[in-house]
Amino acid sequence: MTGTPTAEVYRIDWLPGTDVLHGVCHCGAERTAEDPVELWQWMLAHPTGHHPAGPSQHHPTGHRKEPRS
Prior knowledge:
Blueprint: E1 11-14, E2 21-24, E3 30-33, H1 36-44
Antiparallel strand pairs: 1-2, 2-3
């Protein structure tokens, strides 16, 4: 397959050790939530509430950063 992607890509990752999900919209906007429905509604309501920015430095409450080996 060659060329540019033709579909929008949405990504939701689970933050291990928490009940928190981290979502990334196709525009690059990021958000965290415990409720997957809330996160999907936010992404699919694009661009409402979206403010694309650089990489998120936000660490939600309860998230522990795992050491890399």
